[in-house]
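User: Second chain of the day. Same drill as before.
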Amino acid sequence: MRKNCNQIIRNAAANRRDDLQRKKLELLEAKAEHELAVQRYAEREFRYSPLAEVPDDVKLTNDYFESVRNRVEYNNFYADYYMQRYSDTNLQKFADISQRVRDCHKSWFGDKYKESGYFNVKRVFHCHNRWCWLCNHLKQAQRLGEYHVKLEQLTKVYDVYHVVFTVPNVTGDVLKSTLLQMQSSLKKLIRYFQERGNGIAGVDFAQYGFVGAIRSFEIVISPTEYHPHLHCLFLMKKGLNFPQTEINKFSFNYDSSVPTRLFSKFEIMLQKMFYLLMNGKKLTLKNIENLPFGYSCTADCVEGESWHEVFKYATKMSKDGASVCTYEQFVLLDDIFHRFKMIQGYGVFYNDKTKSDDDIDPTAEILFEKVLILLNSKEKPERDISMALDKIVDEVHKKQLTVISKKLSYKYLKTLMDNVKAELNIGNDYFEPF
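Assistant: Same format as last time:
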């Protein structure tokens, strides 16, 4: 019997692997067909409206590369920390990570047109480390792309609320347990809005029309403490009215006796619910009403696409380009972040990340193919060569090289990143990812 069971398990695992390989093959075939169709269309269009020169839309500027090089130098700070961890633990993985972080974005791969002085970037080495400024930007853009399509569809029917849950500052020895408790408390709170379980007698959660949420952890580091909080997007039915008329202790800044923020009764209910859940108290209407105040919580209806706030960095690690993270803090956070889910979806967003190639502007793809037709008509490039970042920066600065990138011609990505810059107030140092 046991032998038969083991064989069934092995067969099931083999079938899953076969399904995965088949899906990968189907994706590769679909991608190849799409690229071939774009190439053929571009060739036809080039015959009727050829390009005379390479447009600026596909070029990477000198400022762009200076920005990348500055980030690479900043990464050395954390690469040194990983080497220190290697010295402390003698674990080879930390030395390997250190080298990857130090090498991030230093190698660029693509086709070089020597005579015309163009370099078509196809791939850049990424370390994919959580502390890397370069890869963090990439990951944030990826998350935006994953959720953007679905949010665009849902916001036609539902309103989006940016909800922030905050707890008092904590010391490093209880940070991990606090994060886990916040995660658990939010999950329980959302279950009430989903009307799962017995609910709370006297509280009508159905009135909110809640359909889903996305949450992201953010941790602000200070010299002696950590300030963890949750950025959430709540999707609820349109037309809810939450007038902000209430004053509580969170209405005042430290240096002001005049209230700077009024709260809605909905926000105060969330404050108290989260407090009770965080402190293991029973969630009843009586306990909610008798509690003088909870933990700080704000819930603001989002207009347009300012929901990007939830995709901010999980950790604020620097101010004005200078790190405020000590080695001890780095070790603590690095261990906590390992396999810790910093972003989570609930309801309609549970385990669902919508990706769509339909968002890529086909005219942008065709434009880049026409650029390649123009360059290839003049010379054959050196294929799949590697260039070091410092050499690229030097040649771009001397105007000996112009770097082009297909992804920079994707108008939807540029628009998306412009929105992120505006909403997060990041500025021009937030560069487009590969």
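The first strand starts at residue 59 and ends at 60.

User: Great, on to the next one.
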